[in-house]
Design a protein that fits this description.
The chain is mostly helical. Helix content is 62%, strand content 6%. The protein has a two-stranded antiparallel ribbon. The longest helix is centred in the C-terminal third of the chain and has 21 residues, at 160-180. Residues 77-90 have low confidence and may be disordered.
Length: 213
């Protein structure tokens, strides 16, 4: 597994890789060794479609590099093995809203505030390793719908839905900004495209058009 990620990104060290595995899986399987976590992940990836498995591998690389660079600061005792499992807490209600509010403060602004700042925030959040981890865990079907959220060096388990809601809010603001600046065609345009009744098929068709040739 490590060799496969090296082929995708040779900047990742072995320590970074295992730190990322702990962040992704450590709370769900607190009694497994690093090698056993790797075997568990390989078994999960074997059952996923190739494109989904590749996304999970990309997430591991992003998390590992973020930890190595200090962009994602997590104390080992907070995410290593039993700590999260012992906490067993799911943040909800007003507390959950506060956590999401704090998390969005860590979204870096666009480089030029005059150029589509909301779109820049949406892009930054989609590339954030913690948001990617939440989606990867949901894809793997682990964590009972929760994912680790690290703020100020402390890690808390929060529902994956918090990450998704934050992403949806940012994407909605970005879409409004793009439409206002006439960067994207009006919403009615998409209804004239093929597969207008099936948004998933339409998205696949658009990807094929973009990648053709």
């Amino acid at each position: 597994m490590l060799e496969e990620i090296y082929n995708r990104d040779d900047e990742l060290t072995e320590d970074d890789y295992y730190d990322a595995l702990l962040f992704l899986l450590g709370d769900t399987y607190p009694n497994l060794s690093d090698d056993e976590l790797e075997d568990m992940l390989e078994d999960m990836l074997d059952r996923l479609p190739d494109r989904h498995a590749e996304s999970v591998l990309d997430t591991i690389g992003n998390v590992g590099k973020s930890m190595a660079s200090g962009a994602l600061k997590v104390a080992g005792s907070d995410y290593g093995k039993a700590a999260l499992m012992a906490g067993g807490t799911m943040v909800g209600g007003p507390v959950g809203a506060k956590v999401v509010g704090e998390f969005t403060k860590y979204i870096p602004p666009s480089t030029n505030s005059n150029i589509l700042p909301e779109t820049g925030k949406a892009l930054a959040l989609m590339q954030n390793p913690q948001a990617q981890t939440a989606i990867a865990r949901a894809s793997l079907g682990i964590g009972n719908g929760t994912a680790p959220l690290s703020l100020n060096g402390a890690t808390t388990q929060v529902p994956v839905a918090f990450f998704l809601r934050a992403m949806l809010t940012c994407v909605q603001s970005a879409l409004m900004e793009l439409e206002k600046n006439q960067v994207v065609p009006p919403p009615a345009y998409s209804q004239t495209l093929p597969y207008a009744e099936d948004i998933d098929q339409q998205a696949e068709w658009l990807v094929e058009c973009l990648t053709a040739g």
